[in-house]
Amino acid sequence: MASSGELQARIDQLRHRLRSWEERQQNESAGESIEDRLLEIRRRIEERQSESSAARRQRDARIDDAERVLEDSGAASPWPSEVLGRRRRRVLEGLNDRLCLLSRIAERQKEFGPAPPEQDRIHRHALRLAEMAGRALRGAEPETLETVLHDAEAIDQQLRQTCSELLEWSETELARQRQVEQIEAFHSAVVAGENPSVEPLRNLVTSIINDVEECQTAMPRFVPSKSTDRMVAEHSVNVARVVAFLAWNDSLWQPHRESIVMAALLQDVGMRRVPTEWLLQEGTLSSPQRVEIDRHPLVAAAFLAKLEGIDEEVVRAVLGHHERCDGTGYPHGKRAAELTQPALLLAVADDFVGRCALRPYRPRRTVRQAIAEVLAEAEAGRLDVAWTRKLLNLSLYPVGTLVELSNGAIAEVVATQEASEDPALAVKPVVRLRIDRSGKPVHLPRYWNLAVRGECRIVRELTPLEASEVLAAA
Can you list the domains of the chain with their CATH numbers? Predict the structure, then answer.
């Protein structure tokens, strides 16, 4: 799968090629009525319908032969208008297919909630390019049609690849939603007193680990939900992804990832006994409410101890995922020496994911803010320092983040650095310039590795409103 930087570079090239067209098309299309367009479309449909299939095949074969001869000889076309007309119809049909596919992808995305900014941006740009190319092709004059066709065919080919990448993203999101549904169903069965088979759960664990290894990232994905069952399942899958990533970066614990990821998926099954209104409550919880919520690791461990196929290591990790190294956690107030490594890892991942999620009683943290707060917790002695430092490999500025640089330019993060050994690299990603220091949009791709360009550094992350304005301008 192409990287976000490569996809964006392709989009930029297409936009650059069409920029000169757009102005002309706006002027030309101003005098064209909707009725004229409808009549032309109807005429073309009737023309195609009146042509028999055999005649179309014979005609297409004749034109294909002519095109091959022309390409070999360089001679002028004996049927220029027929050849170009067929090519125009073919490209317009292709562009229409791309538009239909982009619409289907957008409809599917609505089922998942807001699209990630990176995916949404590329989708909008691809949609705009397909529409612009179609307008340019339909409005091209006979003397410029061949040139316009050449560019439109190149654009259609690029859009075909972009649509394929967007569809792959959509399939990945669909697979993630199925993971959430699967763990939600497993939680429900456990709470209902059933003894569900853990084999599907093992397959889910393998799927998450493979996904993290393939993508080499584990950034949580959050979808607002008013269903606490869904919220718990979403949180569990996000924690499992972070755990898989952190353990993958630790050679000592790589062989134990399956049990740790399974513990992450099951750690909050006890929360299903907590009333929905408590979890959605904006004010401070009462003492009885707090006591009941603090019991959820005990409830989860009791459920899991009755299931066949659940290891003791998993139960102990679930029981200790809210304990703290200094003894201030719950339910037993244990210290670091009394806790297993999986429990210490779960505590870090659970805390981090919880801070990244929107809660009724506090706003969502950015990844950078969440990592900084978790690091502060570790420095204060409450979380394991070694596991916490591995969070830096997620990057303080994830791919797709828009940032302001010290020279006044605005850039987008396109790649991150390995930062567990050198934390300073967490703030020195590879970026692509979006707005230069003079405030002008940068259309042609320009990339800076901030780990190499020591004179330039990130000053701050742009707010969502600022980011949307930059993307609109660029």
Answer: 4-170 (no CATH), 195-393 (1.10.3210.10), 402-473 (no CATH)
